[in-house]
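Exercise 7b. Backbone tokens:
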């Protein structure tokens, strides 16, 4: 994963190490190296604003940086890059979804999660993966088939339900999706389920009827978390869609899908920086187990090949 972005930072670190003179990096050398890094970042799906922020932060930390003449110069430079990237994302803390859900379940039940995002991003599959992990932890899960627009949407969710073992509450095609979500929550309350996971429609994001529909579901279901699911491979295109969604509905956090087939790696950095929302999980494969918790420190360590 993230091979291109890893190579970008590896090349940058090697370049800095090779030009450091007299135990520190001067401003002229730093400007040239950071200019090269900027273009490599943009080529790796890092948005222009984010690349600017990364370069500016690195400039503050690297100009005049002291590195040991005979020690591990690479480690000293990597440490500066690690701290710079962590600082760029400093406004958005990591969130442990499972921990937050457990704390909420001590006060109320069910914990309601609404999934948002266009068709084809892996929204329904991601819902099923989360249901799988929650059930592995001993929780009981019911899903709401609130995409009453797309033919086959309910059957797709029901097939996941059969494979994973969670119940699906649905309605007729064309029926009110907010009513489906409400029915699923009432069903969960009456039968003691821990989680309600709401699948929603994802037709063209510019469809104002869809946005009105999603707003109504949020108003009726009052989800504890609304998660935008994005296809990491689509980079800035997915970012623009997420920004459009955020004008109409609340987004608490995100899940990046298809990360295992995404060599560039920059869209995750971009989404966190621009949307100021945490990434809860990464989808890293085809099986239900392939949903892993995300942490900024681990992500950056991976980019810099730190162990």
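Sequence design result:
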């Amino acid at each position: 994963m993230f091979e291109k972005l890893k190579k970008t930072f590896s090349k940058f670190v090697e370049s800095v190490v090779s030009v450091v003179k007299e135990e520190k990096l001067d401003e002229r050398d730093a400007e040239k190296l950071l200019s090269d890094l900027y273009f490599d970042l943009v080529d790796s799906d890092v948005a222009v604003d984010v690349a600017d922020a990364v370069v500016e932060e690195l400039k503050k930390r690297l100009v005049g940086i002291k590195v040991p003449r005979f020690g591990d110069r690479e480690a000293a430079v990597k440490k500066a890059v690690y701290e710079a990237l962590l600082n760029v994302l400093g406004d958005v803390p990591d969130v442990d979804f499972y921990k937050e859900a457990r704390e909420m379940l001590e006060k109320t039940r069910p914990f309601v999660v609404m999934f948002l995002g266009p068709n084809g991003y892996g929204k329904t599959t991601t819902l099923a993966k989360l249901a799988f992990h929650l059930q592995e932890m001993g929780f009981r899960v019911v899903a709401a088939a609130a995409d009453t627009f797309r033919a086959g949407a309910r059957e797709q969710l029901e097939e996941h339900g059969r494979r994973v073992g969670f119940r699906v509450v649905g309605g007729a095609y064309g029926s009110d999706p907010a009513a489906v979500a409400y029915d699923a929550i009432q069903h969960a309350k009456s039968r003691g389920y821990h989680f309600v996971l709401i699948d929603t429609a994802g037709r063209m994001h510019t469809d104002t009827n869809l946005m009105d529909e999603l707003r109504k579901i949020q108003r009726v279901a009052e989800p504890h978390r609304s998660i935008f699911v994005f296809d990491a491979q689509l980079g800035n295109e997915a970012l623009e869609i997420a920004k459009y969604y955020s004008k109409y509905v609340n987004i608490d956090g995100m899940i990046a899908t298809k990360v295992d087939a995404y060599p560039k790696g920059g869209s995750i950095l971009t989404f966190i920086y621009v949307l100021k929302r945490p990434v809860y999980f990464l989808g890293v494969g085809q099986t239900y187990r392939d949903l892993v918790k995300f942490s900024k420190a681990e992500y950056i360590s991976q980019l810099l090949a730190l162990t």
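Instructor comment: The radius of gyration is 22 Å. The chain has two domains: 3-89, 97-294.
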